[in-house]
Amino acid sequence: MSTTSKARPPGGAIRRQQTRTAYLFLAVPLLFFLIVRFLPTLMALRMSLFDWNILKDTQPFVGLENYTRLAQDERFLTALKNTAVYTLIGVPVQIALGLAVAVMLSRVTALRGLYRALYFAPYVTPIVAAAWVWQWLFSPQFGPVNTFLTWLHLPAQGFLTSPSQALGTTAALVVWQNLGFQIVLFLAGLAAIPRTYFEAAEIDGATGAQAFRRITLPLLNPTIVFSVVTGTIAYLQLFTQVVNLNFTDQGGPLSSTTTVALYIYQLAFGRFQMGYASAVTVMLFAIILLITVIQLKFLTRRYDA
Amino acid sequence: MKHLVTLALALTVTASAAPVTLTYWQYDYASKVSTMNDLIKQFEAQNPDIKIKQETFPYDAYNQKVASSVPAGQGPDVVNLFYGWLPQYVDSGYLQPLPAKDFPTAAIERDFVPMIKTSKIGGKYYALPTSVRTLAVFYNKDLFKASGVLTPPRTWEEFIAASQKIVKGAPPRFTQLGFGIQPDGQDYHMLREVLVRQYGGSPYSADGKQVTYDSAAGLKAMTFYTELYTKYKLGTPNFFPGNNSYRDAFIAGKVGMIIDGSFAVATIQKGAKFNWGVLNLPTFSGSSVRSNFGSYWVNGITKNAKGDKLDAAVKFLKFLTSADTQRTWLKNVGEIPAGKKLSSDATLRRDPVYGPFVAALPFAHSTLFVDEAGQRKAWVDAINSVILQGATPASALKRAAADEQKLLNEYYK
């Protein structure tokens, strides 16, 4: 026992002070987080138990009524289904495309900067502007995409105006916008893999495909996990693109592009039903939390290098 | 002590002599804001003891902004609202009823056009408009001539015939439309308040609590409207990309006719580079039943205005609804006067642009919305289910009626 105190390095006091300072500095952002992030979350949780309409004088307590109402709310179920479809299309496509482009980009040397800039441009373009351009591109009447289809003697498509195609077109916009960020992530991941592994594989006679499957993919696992988790969360919160692609009938046509986040917005700020909107928010929070925990548990692997 | 009393007295005297400051809110629309600035100057000159502070917010955020100021007890003393929001705002106790001695109900109903009765809630008026809007047909005279349409349509049958001569292309690719069909524009109002009534029905019960368009008349109306797309192929929704698809396309000279409100006059006047005109909404041949959809923005006094402020707010509201202000508003903003006397003025009725809108005032109905966004969605979805998914007009109508009745029940429970 006495050895521990003897073993303590001479700078113990300084270290203790440094630790204290670290805690102090950590406490500032923590406090910010508690007030700006956690407190509103808890307030939403509380609000969801009330029939909280900001246009009413009294906000009666209704217990779990808002939640039981959710189960029969057709619009909520549609929004939930759409959100799931967006995520299931968007995340895999964006990761596959991002990885493919990143692998190719990591091989070129000429004009590398230009290519990177071009792929990254959509990510930094304001979403609203991109949505408006997209609306024009896919216009059934005047859009270049349909003009192109008619050149190929294919029938013109409704795209954003068709209830069966609008969601896919919206998802395509989101993938296109996120692709640049995805590519940058994978480029960083690829750069972090030591060249020696590939050299060794080559000496052992491995093909390119084998090297990709046995070396690149496993060592990119942390990047892929990060992409899947953050991508999933982003898709589950999809909002701005949907709102701006059909401004007069948001989430339309016929609720075919509506998302849970948009539904929350419409309930809260279009119809002032804060209590019910909070219940939807809490549900969305629970869903995101659950999915993230599952993803982290099953996707994260450790490889011995 | 004596000094303190004198000081307190002096303060009270200055306080009562100091002008009352009222805050006025409306949404940000260039011609409305500048006209209001002029009007405020005029009002302040007449009432040196009252100061008005105008604050404006973007249209998209306006309703939210007003609503979020409610629980905080902040915001304006006099506020400009869409009449369709009134039930919710009255319900919240946010607006106070107009003092009966200053605004007697009988006088209001004598002086204003009939549609403003939708602002009477529980037997009391809570707000009054300066101007009102109705619907009419805007038509492109040059396209009419080029397509060989010699006389502008007066009946729906002629409306269809004229449109068919103008339209070019077929679904889904049109290059020119006969009629700028747009369910989520003004069309769903036209269907609900004009077509249903022209077929002899009525969209709602007299107290507004029951949906009554799920009827033979309603079915005929829904069938007629959706056939403009499905059968006659006069045009397509969202012809142009953007927020105001049908209006933008009309201004670009690509559409023969659109149905729009008088509030669109200024925009069309400014944008259209061709000869255009305004027509009354058509009737059915062999029938003389006219109807129109009327809407308006009202000015109300919030619960924030008490005592001196209330007196000042009453004065300001009287000023805002006066004949002089209505005249200024027509001249500078282009919206038609809400007063019966002014809107029946012969020169205004003969005006080629404003005439058709003014002529519709006596038979214009306005819907009492309890949840404007929700009620609109019910109709737009019903129409879209027919034209985009091939549902029958009957099932679409049932669906709209069920959706909307649910919202009415929620409000009136």
Can I get a quick summary?
Chain A has 14 helices and no strands. With about 300 residues, chain A is mainly α.
What is the secondary structure topology, with strand pairs?
The complex is a heterodimer of chains A (305) and B (413).
Chain A: H1 2-7, H2 12-47, H3 65-71, H4 74-107, H5 112-124, H6 127-137, H7 144-151, H8 166-191, H9 195-203, H10 208-219, H11 221-236, H12 240-245, H13 260-270, H14 274-299
Helix pairs in contact in A: 2-14, 4-8, 4-11, 4-13, 5-8, 8-11, 11-14, 13-14
Chain B: H1 2-17, E1 20-27, H2 30-46, E2 50-57, H3 59-72, E3 78-82, H4 86-91, E4 95-96, H5 105-111, E5 120-121, E6 124-125, E7 127-133, E8 135-140, H6 141-146, H7 156-166, E9 168-170, E10 173-179, H8 183-198, H9 216-230, H10 245-251, E11 255-261, H11 265-271, E12 276-279, E13 292-293, E14 295-302, H12 308-320, H13 323-332, E15 336-337, H14 340-343, H15 346-350, H16 355-359, E16 364-365, H17 372-387, H18 393-412
Helix pairs in contact in B: 2-13, 8-9, 9-18, 17-18
